[in-house]
Amino acid sequence: MEDWMKDVPGTVLQTQRMLRQTVPDLAERYAALDAALRDEVRAVRAEQAAGGAVPQVAFADVAEGRVDADTVARIKRRGCVVIRQVFDRAQVDDWNAEVVRYIDDIRYLERMKDKAGLDKYFSTLASSRPQIFSLYWSKPQMQARQHPHQAATRAWLNRLWTFEKQGVRYFDPDRQFNYADRIRRREAGDATLGLSPHSDGGSVERWCEPTFRFVYREVFEGDPLAFDPFDAEGRTVTREIPSPAVCSAFRTFQGWTALTRQGPGDGTLRLVPVAKTTPWMLLRALQPDVPEGDLCGAQPGRALGASAQWHQTLLDGLVSIPQMEPGDTIWWHSDVIHAVEDKHGGSGYSNVIYIGAAPWCAKNEAFAKKQAAAFVEGRSSPDFAPEDYELGFAGRAMPDDLTPLGRRQMGLEPWN
């Protein structure tokens, strides 16, 4: 991989030319995917108008095994789900208040001016108030990650995947790795945080890197309509370009936990709730109207963007997620296109803790070793810019604050 990274533009050009020549029946398979995507987008718009395109279930039903097969099928089709009341309201209110104190005690707003420029991918300008905080080790974050309800939720989500074939297990669905992400505290009226539609976890790699091409082998070599986004074969060995904008762990679902009430218009999450969008995007970049050396704007070391210039068919399905209450969670497949509303037009803070579902596997175990060292020392998560706000701060969570489950999820103790 390091060899092709020395000349990414050259590799992109060569790969695009190669795929245009070798993908069988390229025009026909793209036409089939295009028709299928248009059907899905029409279905999304109809579902949204009828009450919501994003499936919703109660945590109690997840915990008791009461989610029916039709609902599971819809979740897998839409690639996302809201799981309600994962946490008790009083507990979440306490976490929210403690997060606010933590931000103040660490003097984040004062110190961020000295960190300006470290995170060129995500951080706001030094003159702006931040809306996403590069904090990873507060006690509320660690408590939410290691909570038994969170473990049960993520195990259920992991089991939506095909994680084993012919005796080969790609990941353990019932054991989690606690991938550390940040905090969002978006204030009313903010118009700085909006994120354009994108998918995380690799961009040009999806065409150029052999491990990624294996994941999408049906698209390039087989029956693209048969591609299964929930097939884990190959997913746990992909090799991403190292970057603060690219997740280097394997996540079955990205997600966050709501600390405050928030909904459409409150600067919240938007999704294209279609699990099978990546095949269409991959072949879109091979069509004759796309210039040589241009994979529809994909850039190395960034998220895979979806733009109006190349992907309007897909973006017609972009919808805001439903109203969220404190303690609710939202989850979206790692391939699903998502965005953030440009402006928070509500009246209160829109606060979340980013917590995804990352099952235990060799890839995540290797990352856990690096992350555990950062946690113990109070440094930023190794997947993000080294801003290190929590280094030397006594108020952060320490290993002694973790439960036995939390210690295993952080790789500090072995799983039995």
Our estimate of the beta-strand percent is 5-15%
**How large, in whole angstroms, is the Cα Rg?**
21 Å
Number of helices: 16
Distance between the termini: 35 Å
**Structural class by secondary-structure content:** alpha+beta
Helix content: 25-40%
Mean residue pLDDT: 94
Count the beta strands. Answer: 16
Runs in which pLDDT lies below 50 for 5 or more consecutive residues are: 120-127
Major β-sheet profile: 7 strands, mixed
Main sheet: which strands, in order across? 1-2-13-9-15-7-3
Mass-distribution shape = globular
What does this 3D model show about the protein?
The chain has helices spanning 2-5, 8-22, 26-49, 59-63, 69-78, 89-105, 108-115, 139-146, 148-158, 205-208, 210-215, 217-220, 278-284, 308-315, 362-377, 404-409; strands spanning 56-58, 80-84, 132-133, 164-165, 168-169, 172-176, 183-186, 198-199, 253-258, 269-271, 304-305, 319-320, 329-333, 338-340, 350-354, 359-360. The protein has 416 residues and is of the alpha+beta class. The protein has a seven-stranded mixed beta sheet. A hairpin with a 2-residue loop joins strand 4 and strand 5. The longest helix has 24 residues, at 26-49. It is globular, with a radius of gyration of 21 Å. It starts with a helix and ends in a 7-residue tail after the last helix. Residues 120-127 have low confidence and may be disordered.
